[in-house]
Structures are given as C-alpha cells and as structure tokens.
Amino acid sequence: MMSIPIDAEGRFAGYASVFNRLDSGGDIVLPGAFAKSLAKRRGRIRLLFQHDPKEPVGTWDSIVEDTYGLFVTGRLVPGVPRAEALRRLIENRALDGLSIGFRTVKASREAGSGHRRLSEIDLYEISIVTFPMMEDARIAAPLTAGAAIAAATKTIRNR
Questions:
Q1: What pTM does this model have?
Q2: Dihedrals φ, ψ of 129, to 5°?
Q3: d(CA 145, CA 121)
Q4: Catalytic positions, please?
C-alpha cells in the first residue's frame, strides 16, 4: 500500500533542494550551502505557495541539511482556503513540488558548462510549487519524516 504524502493535520515532509544535482536554471547546490542561513534565520523561513509573498500557507516545523539535501517538515494552516486546497491536492498526488527562494551569497562557475555551483545561500522561503526547478525537490510521505529527521540531525552533529 502506498503511503499518503500528507496527514489529516496537514503535515508533510520532503526535500526542498538536493545537493550536487543540476537544476533547470543551471544551478548546483553544494552540501553546507544552507548552514549559515539556517543558523541566522532560525524559524523565519516562510512556507509559501508558488513563491508568492501574498500566499503564505503554513509553517516549517524543521529545516535541516543532511547528506542528500535540504530536508523539510511542515504543516499547512487549517482554515486558510489556499492551504485547505493544497492539502487536498497533495493528498491526491496532484501537487508535490518544492522550491527554494534564496539570494546567492557565494558561487562559482564551472569551466565549460557555465553552471553555477552555489556554496552559500541566504534562504528566505520554501514554496509548494507545481513545477520545481530541481526535479527531485518533492513532498514525500510524512510518516517517514521522524526517521529522516533523526538521521539528518545525526549527520549534522557528526560534521
């Protein structure tokens, strides 16, 4: 049986960014790129719909870097019409993309390809989107979130 990607309370989890993968904008996020921003912003990273500042839809319970990427757990706010619609869309697998809103702090260009290698990012929001620029930035089942958070926390402590 396939797990449901969001629970009845609107909680979900997934990867907002994946390390060392080329996105459709020509960027490659490197491990550790979010560390300074996460320490600085401490819970002030917004959960939006389609990167629209007029469309806040929830809150992030946790945002952590692990060896794979930026793992997030969040919850949609009950009673917000857009959040209610998103819960139903996610539940029915009609929507599952995640995308980061950021400012580049440190980056280099790859010789030949010209791809940007992002080594430091100032992250200010993460959105639920229809078409993520990073193909693997997706919502996954919330029931596996606890184990993933424990693994991510262990990975961060061991750096």
A1: 0.86
A2: -135, 160
A3: 24
A4: 51, 99, 125
Tally Cβ neighbours within 10 Å of residue 115. 17
Q: What is the pLDDT along the chain (159 residues), one digit of tens a residue?
A: 457 889 989 999 999 999 999 999 999 999 999 999 999 988 799 999 999 999 999 999 999 999 999 999 999 999 999 999 999 999 999 999 999 999 999 999 999 999 999 999 999 999 999 999 999 999 986 545 444 544 444 444 333
Q: Which long-range contacts (CB under 8 A, 24 or more apart) does 74-81 make?
A: 74/11, 74/12, 74/13, 74/47, 74/126, 75/9, 75/10, 75/11, 75/12, 76/6, 76/10, 76/12, 77/10, 78/9, 78/10
Dihedral of alpha carbons 75, 77, 79, 81, sign: negative
